[in-house]
Specification:
The chain has about 375 residues and is α+β, with helices and mostly antiparallel strands. It has 8 helices and 18 strands. Strand 9 and strand 10 form a beta hairpin. The termini are far apart. InterPro entries: NUDIX_hydrolase-like_dom_sf (IPR015797), Nudix_hydrolase6-like (IPR003293), NUDIX_hydrolase_CS (IPR020084), NUDIX_hydrolase_dom (IPR000086), Pre-Nudix (IPR040618).
Length: about 375
């Protein structure tokens, strides 16, 4: 039995179609399961043939038939694959078709495509041909980067996408993001997030006492160290609100943000990510301590002179420099950075710009 792929190209192309499968007599209904079907690049619409399909008219002539498509996003562009099964020894021929459409997606502002994760094909078997056809379609349209977000519940589609050339970009608890770069040359898609962002709260009260903690989990060499409360900011959280929150969570003390005193930039830390650590000066609004039992071993108000005199502070260049800067700020010999909400005309969004504010007629920093 012969299987031939038919499309809207001239008959000369149809005559050149390769024999793609031979099998013994097989029930028509089970054909897809019994024959492994592959098409050459010349005949497979997944490789770029125009969005047309052929159907058999009443007089036996193959006629072109355009697929349905949306004008704006072309979400429903489709190709009808028609297969001709020619029986051996003069047996009659039969036709069946399979409709393959472009995955639902929208254009991004950089000439790429973002696939809609909520409208992926329900049947996993339909995903591979649709993905192949979509890539061909997007290539013809001159698209560049393809973003494919696969929810956790559709994880069975990940190996299919990888087989088609998609690469991992990043993952979150509920999904994995994969990308595909169509043009020749290096991929210009932005990489995954390269940094984690941490904050530390330098809190000092009217008695010249610093709020310090000892963590439950630490390197044994830091067993005796009393340090300022630190932690990572949350997604979409501002630096100043993150510092206030971390101090509250670890010690129970309410605070008010004053300034960003300094920040450290380090590389190749956890999972080879870079790290930004912002030291913030905070003013205490309460004094009672309530320790976070999950992360903190102890917390207390420590005299500033004792805090500075700790051997681990004095022997560590980074810690010592941070303390020196905080001391200079307390003496009003140093100005930190204050956040200001500004709106950019480029994207129309409000964001925080941290900058130094000094009265032109005053050489000292009065702060808040």
């Amino acid at each position: 039995m012969e299987l031939k792929f038919l499309n809207s190209k001239p008959s000369s192309l149809s005559e050149k179609a390769a024999l793609v499968a031979r099998t013994k007599s097989s029930p028509f209904s089970s054909f897809e399961h019994s024959v492994g079907v592959k098409f050459s690049q010349e005949f497979s619409s997944c490789r770029g043939i125009s969005k047309k399909a052929s159907y058999l008219s009443s007089n036996g002539t193959y006629m072109p038939k355009r697929a349905n498509s949306s004008v704006d996003k072309e979400k429903t562009a489709a190709e009808n694959y028609f297969y001709q099964i020619s029986g051996t020894n003069g047996a009659s021929s039969s036709l069946f078709s399979r409709n393959v459409g472009v995955l639902d997606a929208c254009d991004d502002e950089y000439g790429g495509v973002v696939v809609d994760p909520d409208r992926l094909p329900a049947n996993p078997d339909d995903f591979a041909p649709m993905l192949q056809f979509s890539l061909s379609h997007w290539k013809m349209k001159g698209k560049k980067g393809i973003w494919l977000k696969l929810p956790l519940e559709r994880s069975e589609l990940v190996p299919v996408a990888v087989k088609e050339g998609f690469e991992y970009h990043h993952a979150e608890p509920g999904y994995v993001m994969l990308t595909y770069w169509i043009p020749e040359g290096p991929c210009l898609l932005p990489t995954n997030a390269t940094h984690q962002v941490g904050v530390g709260g330098f809190v000092i009260n009217d008695k010249n006492e610093v709020l310090v903690v000892q963590e439950k989990f630490y390197d044994p060499s830091f067993a005796d160290l009393w340090k300022i409360p630190t932690g990572f900011i949350l997604e979409s959280e501002e630096i100043y609100t993150g510092a206030v929150r971390e101090v509250k969570e670890e010690t129970g003390v309410d605070t008010e943000f004053v300034e960003v005193i300094a920040f450290r930039h380090a590389h190749n830390l956890a999972f080879d990510k870079s790290d930004l650590f912002f030291v913030c000066m905070l003013k205490p609004l309460s004094a009672q301590l309530k320790v976070d039992d999950l992360e903190i071993q102890a917390a207390k108000w420590m005299p500033l002179v004792e805090f500075v005199a700790q051997p681990l502070i004095q022997e560590d260049g980074l810690f010592k420099k941070i303390v020196d800067i905080c001391m200079a700020r307390l003496g009003k010999h140093y100005c930190g950075l204050l956040p200001r909400q500004v709106v950019s005309k480029f994207d129309g969004r409000s964001s925080c710009l941290y900058h130094n504010v000094i009265d032109a007629g005053n050489v000292t920093c009065n702060g808040n």
